[in-house]
Amino acid sequence: MYESHTKHRRSLDLQIVKKPPGEHGMLPPGPHPWPLLGNLLHLGELPHQYLAALAKKYGPLMFIHLGSIPAVVVSSPAMAKEFLKTHDLFFANRPADSAGIYLAYEGKDMAYASYRDYWRPMKKLYTIELLTPKRNETFKSMREEEVAGIIRSIWKQSEQGARCVDLTKLLFSLTLNIFSRMSAGRIFSDHEFRGGRKFKEIMGEGMDLAGTFVIADFIPLLKYIDLQGLRRQMKSLHGPPNTR
């Protein structure tokens, strides 16, 4: 139901606010929260649309509660610049959630790591080894090959009479192939090496789980109760990539 919550952040940027207990300060305006659940029930299946409607009422900076978690919603380019550029270091950390704990080695993954001593050298390593202009130029032909392969796949499907194309599946394969060729020098596809299909399945399931709403992340009282069974899935998924 809430899977789209993490898939529509292009339209509205959401920042988690952590303040000492009892310290409220001058908070932005926002809708009144329900006890325990906060504003979660209002989000529905299309939270980006609900938040966009709220932004028209409360302005480009508003305060909501995601369960027991206070959050600020930013919905204008100027305000986003203040958060992501002018004061970016204050908001550089992301809150610990189930995906970061169980799928990313307790926040050791680049996307989940806190802005501390571990993250900074990791960023430097990524930048030097993968993201410099020289490296980008080195990988240019590889990226072009992979994009051309996707285009050929779409063309082949159209020749076979397919009326619809699963872009999600194609773009996932494209991203995974580019990443694997950049980082490991090989394509993790079905025919390239033993276990390739399983690897793709694990990666796909991991991405789906990482984008799924875990209610315990927003209601701490449920921290030790895996109501949805999602944390169990994350734990079971965490091992296979390291043992194949």
From TrEMBL:
It is found in: Membrane. Its cofactor is heme. It comes from the Eukaryota. Pathway: Alkaloid biosynthesis; taxol biosynthesis. GO terms for molecular function: heme binding; iron ion binding; monooxygenase activity; oxidoreductase activity, acting on paired donors, with incorporation or reduction of molecular oxygen. Signal peptide: none annotated. GO terms for biological process: paclitaxel biosynthetic process. This is Cytochrome P450. It comes from Taxus chinensis. The lineage of its organism: Eukaryota, Viridiplantae, Streptophyta, Embryophyta, Tracheophyta.
